[in-house]
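Fig. S4 source data, part A: sequence.
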Amino acid sequence: MATIRAHEFISLDGVFESPSWTAEFGFDPAMGETLAAITGGSDTILLGRTTYEMFAPGWRDRTVEDDPGAPFFNETEKIVVGAQEPSEEWAHTTLFGAYDADRLRELKDARDGGIYISGSGRLVRGLIADGLLDELHLFVYPVALGAGERLFADQRTRLTLTATDVYDNGVVHHCFRPAG
């Protein structure tokens, strides 16, 4: 059975959507090391359609010289969850269709290794609610936005903290597993 790990960039008040607000904090190289550890062992990327459509044009033409993560994102199998077909193309992509917890459970059960999710907050929210997410990595930025879609908008979620890192740019990484 595969392990599903997700990471989210969120504000102090839990906003995940349109993370362009993270740019003012820069990207601490130690964050890249943490993300590399999260993606390590993953042979599949699972993305919601909206995140996929943001990522495809940003990653598909990048090389390792542009970003050391480019080979992972461009060469790894990507599965897109969403009721609508994406408007962007990207190599090694399979369309899953609308969110379906039973089909996602079958996908998880049929694979070994890791399934990695970046962003895709609504997808992650569903996976948490359906007990399918194994690790949640929150990169919490030191800003409250006051508006925007929140990761835990309408659900009570109990998690167990397993690790924490603090970066020089003020971002704090928390790794959680389902409480249990």
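Fig. S4 source data, part B ends here. The beta strands are 3-11, 42-48, 77-81, 93-97, 114-118, 135-141, 159-166, 172-178.
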